Amino acid sequence: MNNDEQLKALYQQRKSQTKPPHSTRQLLLAKARAEQVKPSYNLWNWTLGVSLCAALLVLFQYVGLFHQQWQPTYEVIQVHRWHEESQTEELAAVLAEKARIEHADNYARYLQGQQIVTAHHKRLARLVNTEDGWGLQTCDQELVLLTAQLVEQLLNSRRLEQQLKKGDEVEIAYDAAGRILTIKPASKLSC
Fold this sequence. Notes:
17% strand; 191 residues; CATH 2.40.50; five-stranded antiparallel β-sheet; single chain
């Protein structure tokens, strides 16, 4: 320890004899001031971190308590019937009536949709047979050829009457893009 004390004394003596330049002294003083400011800044960050952790802890506890308190409750419901046979018939009649009404409403909506789709434009034509299948000759003397695939799709979707034969006057309904939607017998109209 004696050596350490002697070394410190020599260092202090040398330090007092040597004076640093003014710029170095200012730089060291600025660094010292900056270090003195940092602890308060770190203290502020530390308190913000602690308060954030505390808030999260309170939030998790609140959510946990809320989750524990919210448990679904179940009740047992028993159904008893006195006159089983009469109620079954009445219930079946009510359900059948509801199904009939719902079916009628759905069908009415379907028909409305069909009217909107086919309302773009219609043309009159006459059915003719061609080598490749059916053809439609319009009043403007245009020939519209129907592929077998289109005829089959129209028949399957009930958009083409099966009773139609060569020479019949028909009404062709087109959509906005010019695709054929339905082919039906013409109603007292001719070219």
